[in-house]
Design brief:
The protein contains no helices and ten strands. By secondary structure, it is mostly beta strands. The strands form two sheets. It has a five-stranded antiparallel beta sheet, with no helix packed on it. Strands 3-10-9-5-6 form a five-stranded mixed beta sheet, with no helix packed on it.
Length: about 110
């Protein structure tokens, strides 16, 4: 799992990020036959993703799922999760991170 192009550990808290900034997540899976389904979720809500599927040459596939969204105060402490469904496992594989977001405050003096 990658956040802004950097690998992160499962269960990590990432940030702090500023409310209103664009956030990019990537989740990758390889070796699936057929290609695994890789999705992103924000709590119980699926995130829109761009999915790239590439053949690995031995009948298996490499899948990258990229989610890009604008952070809001409602994402603070949210659990963003990558789920991989594959014929190789009877249960989906889950990896997740928590988001640390700072408000974008404007002061009037």
């Amino acid at each position: 799992m990658e956040v802004e192009g950097k690998k992160v550990r499962n269960g990590s808290t990432v940030g702090p990020y500023v409310e209103g900034s664009t956030f990019v997540l990537e989740c990758k899976s390889s070796g699936g036959r057929p290609a695994p389904e890789v999705t992103w979720w924000n709590g119980t809500k699926p995130l829109p993703v761009k999915t790239t599927v590439l053949p690995e040459g031995n009948g298996t596939y490499f899948v990258t799922s990229t989610a890009r969204f604008v952070l809001s105060r409602w994402d603070l402490g949210g659990k963003v999760e990558c789920r991989v469904r594959s014929n190789a496992s009877s249960h989906p594989v889950h990896q997740w991170i928590k988001l640390d977001i700072h408000g974008n405050y404007v002061s009037s003096l």
